[in-house]
Design brief:
single chain, 178 residues, alpha+beta, 16% strand, elongated
Length: 178
């Protein structure tokens, strides 16, 4: 029968026509975002080890990072994302093995000109070698102190276990052989 498709289509249209409207006046009202929403990027600089996995995972090569090696450690000195070319696919976030890069729920990323679209997450100089050496020395001293405290606690536990065993041997009657 002709018009059967037309009637099905109109049935769906009229069904939506009488439902409650869900229009939101955006700047004044905001709808709650899903936890997995891909919004603006956030970088936790303290967690980042400047490995470059995120830059290698990006299909459009959006991420530009610069790192400086001071002593035995790498420091992230510059992290720029060219958001105008980003697909928001999330491959960079998934590839980060330290969970330093993640998405936020911020959706207001509009800019007036194209030059302002670039997102600079880090722009800092590398720390001087003296500061790095001092921090490594402090970390080593803290690790040695923790190891000494652990060894002392283990020795104390071993001594506490030996005392009841020695008392039990003294109080037990001696067995006579036949």
């Amino acid at each position: 029968m002709f018009g059967q498709g037309l009637l099905k289509g109109l049935q769906i249209t009229w069904g939506w026509f009488f439902r409650k409207k869900v229009t939101v006046e955006y700047p004044d009202e905001k709808i709650p975002m899903a936890p997995r929403f891909h919004g603006r990027f956030e970088l936790d600089v303290d967690k980042c080890i400047a490995c470059g996995l995120c830059a290698n995972a990006c299909p459009n090569k959006v991420i530009q990072l610069e790192r400086t090696k001071v002593g035995t450690k790498q420091y992230l000195t510059k992290y720029i994302m060219r958001i105008e070319y980003c697909l928001f696919c999330g491959l960079c976030v998934e590839s980060c093995n330290k969970d330093a890069l993640k998405f936020s729920n911020v959706i207001d990323m509009n800019q007036y000109t194209r030059n302002w679209v670039r997102l600079t997450l880090v722009d800092r100089p590398a720390p001087p070698p003296e500061v790095v050496a001092q921090a490594e020395a402090e970390a080593k001293a803290a690790a040695e102190k923790a190891a000494a405290a652990k060894a002392a606690a283990a020795a104390k536990d071993a001594a506490a276990k030996e005392k009841p065993a020695a008392k039990a041997k003294e109080g037990a009657p001696a067995k006579e052989g036949k």
